[in-house]
């Protein structure tokens, strides 16, 4: 091949790459128009929070949303980090129906890890790309007010300590931050009217906040590809959220879209790892959020793929009567 021919071939290849990139941008155009100025609540957790490359990619995605004219809000958990710190402190981790038994001593660790460490870490990742992220907890300005939540074991209520269910959301402080162009990053602890501080499931917190803010989307990042049609046969992935040694989810058909009623019918067959996520999605769409998504956070840039591409990924929950 001559030098000129090689040069022409290289230019052709570069041109094809450029055209493909332009096509991707054009594909995003209607979604940019539809979601401009709208609030998106993202629950951040699972493997996406532990892997360095995924952490960096998540921060880029959130800042991209901000520059694209959306108003992202991040709600995060930190179960593995809490378990690790409890072990370092000589405290055991006990679970009932997927909920951490939380003594007063355990709650001190939960509060320290979620608000003092994980929250600051997420804020720092985002702020590498601009002065946008502001960290807060559900305690700040009484964003979340919680009450004690028992675990239901064999139909019986079992006290599991300072585990809370959200009773009220006061989103004024989050709205103020969004109006100022900031990205609120919220840890899932909440104050109770009884003066206690409660450990609240981050999935539940994200769903409640999405409703209170009138969000256009609730996005759950997790460690499975979505909700499987043959659940619980493909439940190994959900178990991976509870144990790092659990096997990866076997191949199965992921439901791309289902209605609130369809999801309600599936809930009794789900297991602990997936229950709070899907319940939060259900409550969100029944509370006025048009779309709730469960995405595989192990997939780089999962958030952008869901919001700005025609095909989307994961499982989308919509209100009854909505057609795909």
Q: Could you characterize what this model shows?
A:
Mean pLDDT is 85; it is low at 236-250. The chain has a single domain, classed as Carbamate kinase (3-Layer(aba) Sandwich), CATH 3.40.1160.10. Helices cover 41% and strands 22% of the residues. It has an 8-stranded mixed beta sheet, with helices on both faces. Strands 6-9-12-11 form a 4-stranded mixed barrel. Strands 3-4 form a two-stranded antiparallel sheet. Helix 2 (52-67) packs across helix 4, helix 3 (79-88) packs across helix 4 (104-127) and helix 6 (202-213) packs parallel to helix 9. Strand 3 (95-96) and strand 4 form a beta hairpin. The protein has 10 helices and 16 strands. The chain has 324 residues and is α/β, with parallel strands linked by helices.
């Amino acid at each position: 091949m001559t030098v000129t021919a090689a040069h022409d071939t290289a230019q052709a290849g570069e041109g094809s790459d450029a055209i493909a990139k332009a096509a991707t941008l054009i594909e995003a155009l209607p979604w940019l128009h539809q979601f401009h100025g709208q609030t998106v609540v993202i629950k951040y957790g699972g493997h996406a929070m532990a892997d360095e490359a995924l952490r960096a990619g998540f921060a880029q995605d959130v800042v991209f949303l901000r520059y694209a004219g959306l108003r992202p809000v991040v709600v995060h958990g930190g179960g593995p980090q809490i378990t690790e710190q409890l072990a370092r402190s000589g405290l055991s981790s006990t679970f009932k129906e997927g909920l951490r038994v939380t003594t007063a001593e355990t709650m001190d660790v939960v509060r320290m890890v979620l608000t003092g460490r994980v929250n600051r870490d997420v804020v720092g990742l985002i702020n590498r790309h601009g002065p946008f992220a502001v960290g807060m907890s559900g305690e700040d300005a009484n964003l979340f007010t919680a009450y004690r939540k028992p675990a239901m074991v064999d139909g019986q209520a079992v006290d599991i300590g300072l585990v809370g269910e959200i009773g009220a959301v006061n989103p004024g402080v989050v709205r103020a931050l969004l109006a100022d162009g900031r990205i609120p990053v919220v840890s899932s602890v909440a104050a109770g009217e009884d003066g206690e501080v409660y450990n609240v499931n981050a999935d539940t917190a994200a769903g409640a906040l999405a409703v209170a803010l009138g969000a256009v989307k609730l996005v759950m990042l997790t460690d499975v590809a979505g909700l499987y049609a043959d659940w619980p046969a493909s439940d190994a992935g959900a178990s991976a959220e509870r144990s790092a040694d659990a096997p990866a989810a076997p191949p199965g058909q992921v439901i791309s879209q289902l209605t609130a009623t369809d999801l309600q019918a599936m809930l009794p067959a789900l297991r602990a790892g997936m229950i709070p996520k899907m319940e939060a999605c259900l409550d969100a769409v029944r509370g006025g959020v048009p779309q709730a998504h469960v995405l595989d956070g192990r997939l780089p840039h999962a958030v952008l793929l869901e919001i700005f591409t025609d095909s989307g990924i994961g499982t989308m929950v919509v209100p009854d009567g909505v057609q795909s």
